[in-house]
């Protein structure tokens, strides 16, 4: 009996010991690597240097590194005047953030300078001493935080281009500046790779429209102007939005080349100016059909689409200006319109980057999509060859079917 009592007592003491050790372990890990997401990443980098582990939970190497990374975090994140923040990003959750930073393998370790504009990728050993040595080496090479801030300010002054035609917006002046007129605004973050690549193109776009008093090319830094960016639910960078008199009208989602961006702005201005001049939409269909008879491709919009297809045979190309296949088809489509001159068929097209509702209603899933309508009803999706001869034969068959009816 006494032996049993002693055994039970020993077991209790062992249990208490392990519970105590577990509590100590939890306390030790209370200060660990900071987890960043899309909302906290930019502000975190804006404050201080960051050494960040981009990882995936399923990655074996990441699991092996995790305790060492937390040890590193205890050293630097707990210091009163730490020169660096130890952080991490789960790339299975924040895929866009990791894509912006060209993360293609796990774990990827990067030390970012304050403000995140430059970084150094770590490719050495992953033991604690090697990681600490890397941090110290980078800190000594970069100088103090004060020096870095001063150097960056001087660099900005040296590279500042007062002649830039891109308007800079902030939380404070945003509403007042965009209250009147057309604004094409880039919502961005300084650390974003795609934003950096877009920057010179955006400048070129602003220069192209610098003499046009109807439109303004602008930008807003979402790491600084968080109120505006949250109001428009900006989740990725860069986000490009089109505004009219302070109201969001559209979002640009095509390739960001200067040609496509310029076409987007020109098309927007054309549509807006047309509306301002009070064009009579009820008169457009007859004029369009006359153009079609003369060999011109009819441009359909949300206003005239249903009216145009309501009667007769209408063959429509649904396209996007940036689409390579669409560009190759364009001259053939123009030829088809000319060759169909005098026949009872309208050759038309719809720009799906401009008239999204029309394309969604017609279930457009790819470009170009060719559909033919008779008296407002869909007859067929065309899936044949795209030579002029192929298209002409298709139209002729549809006309013959009409005659048989």
TrEMBL record:
Name of protein: Thioredoxin domain-containing protein
Similarity comment: family membership: Belongs to the protein disulfide isomerase family.
One Pfam family cited in the UniProt record for this chain: Thioredoxin
Origin: domain of life: Eukaryota
Alphabetical keyword list: Redox-active center, Repeat, Signal
InterPro entries: PDI (IPR051063), PDI_thioredoxin-like_dom (IPR005788), Thioredoxin-like_sf (IPR036249), Thioredoxin_CS (IPR017937), Thioredoxin_domain (IPR013766)
Domain Thioredoxin: 20-140, 155-270, 278-400
Signal sequence, renumbered to the chain: 1-22
Keyword Repeat tagged: yes
GO molecular function, one term: protein disulfide isomerase activity
GO (cellular component) term, any one: endoplasmic reticulum
One biological process term in Gene Ontology: protein folding
Gene3D superfamilies named among the record's database cross-references: Glutaredoxin
């Amino acid at each position: 009996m006494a032996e049993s009592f002693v055994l039970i007592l020993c077991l209790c003491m062992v249990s208490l010991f392990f519970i105590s050790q577990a509590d100590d372990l939890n306390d030790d890990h209370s200060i660990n690597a900071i987890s960043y997401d899309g909302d906290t990443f930019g502000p975190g980098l804006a404050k201080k240097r960051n050494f960040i582990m981009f990882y995936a939970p399923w990655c074996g190497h990441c699991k092996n590194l995790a305790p060492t990374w937390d040890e590193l975090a205890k050293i630097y994140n707990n210091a009163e005047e730490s020169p660096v923040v130890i952080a991490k990003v789960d790339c299975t959750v924040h895929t866009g953030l990791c894509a912006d930073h060209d993360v293609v393998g796990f774990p990827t370790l990067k030390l970012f300078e304050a403000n995140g504009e430059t970084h150094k990728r770590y490719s050495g050993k992953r033991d604690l001493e090697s990681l600490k040595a890397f941090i110290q080496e980078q800190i000594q090479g970069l100088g103090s935080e004060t020096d870095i801030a001063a150097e960056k300010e001087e660099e900005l002054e040296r590279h500042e281009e007062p002649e830039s035609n891109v308007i800079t917006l902030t939380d404070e002046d945003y509403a007042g500046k965009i209250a009147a007129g057309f604004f094409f605004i880039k919502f961005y973050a300084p650390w974003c790779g795609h934003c950096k690549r877009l920057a010179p193109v955006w400048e070129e776009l602003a220069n192209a429209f610098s003499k046009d008093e109807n439109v303004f090319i602008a930008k807003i830094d979402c790491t600084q102007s968080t109120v505006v960016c949250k109001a428009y639910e900006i989740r990725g960078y860069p986000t490009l939005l089109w505004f009219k008199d302070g109201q969001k009208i559209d979002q640009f989602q095509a390739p960001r080349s200067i040609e496509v961006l310029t076409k987007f702005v020109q098309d927007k201005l054309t549509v807006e100016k047309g509306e301002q001049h009070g064009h009579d939409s009820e008169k457009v269909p007859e004029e369009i059909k006359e153009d079609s008879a003369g060999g011109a491709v009819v441009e359909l919009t949300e206003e005239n689409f249903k009216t145009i297809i309501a009667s007769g045979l209408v063959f429509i190309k649904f396209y996007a200006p940036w689409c390579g296949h669409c560009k190759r088809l364009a001259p053939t489509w123009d030829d088809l319109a000319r060759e169909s001159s005098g026949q009872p068929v309208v050759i038309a097209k719809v720009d799906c980057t401009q008239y999204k509702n029309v394309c969604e209603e017609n279930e457009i899933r790819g470009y170009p999509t060719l559909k033919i309508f008779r008296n407002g009803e869909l007859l067929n999706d065309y899936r044949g060859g795209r030579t002029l001869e192929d298209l002409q034969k298709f139209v002729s068959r549809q006309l013959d079917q009409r005659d048989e009816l």
